[in-house]
Amino acid sequence: MVQSCESWTEREAQVERWRSSGLKAEAYCAQQGLALPSFLYWVKRLRRQRVPVQPVAPLQLVPVSVQAPTPTPMALGSLTLRSPAGWQLSLPASWSATDVLALLRQLP
Predict the structure, then answer these.
(1) Strand partners, 79
(2) Strand, helix or coil at 35?
(3) Separation in Å, CA 105 to CA 28, 30, 58
């Protein structure tokens, strides 16, 4: 006969006993008269409750201005990034978006 656990406290205790038993879930459930699918659901749900949720910083909008480039001999074939903080970075136009993104991720 399949045993049922009514409260999450009972289910958590059952999962802890299984973990300390050293048995595979199938063997433990057969020994305890537990339905394996329900037991695996308990394990999954309890694991999710244990994982601390990391606070996520709120998204912040940053003002951006787009201007048509002024063609100069030096600027042809390059990409210039200007920061509101005042720094400027010129890159060859041959760089892919992936390369630029990888570089930007390295900036403080």
Answers:
(1) 91
(2) coil
(3) 48, 52, 18
Quickly tell me which residue has 């999962």 as its tokens. Answer: 15
Distance CA 46, CA 64 (A): 45
Strand partners, 92: 78
Residues in the chain: 108
**C-alpha count within 13 angstroms, C-beta hemisphere, residue 82:** 8
Angle between helix axes 25-32 and 8-21 (nearest 10 degrees) is 120
Question: Which segments of the chain does DSSP mark as H helices, in order?
Answer: 8-21, 25-32, 36-50, 97-106
What span, in angstroms and rounded, lies between the C-alpha atoms of 23 and 32?
Answer: 11
* Chain segment 83-106, per-residue pLDDT in tens: 787 778 788 878 888 888 888 787
pTM: 0.42
Instruction: Tell me: pLDDT of 4 over 60.
Output: no
What are the structure tokens assigned to 12, written together?
Answer: 């958590």
CB atoms within 10 A of CB 103: 13
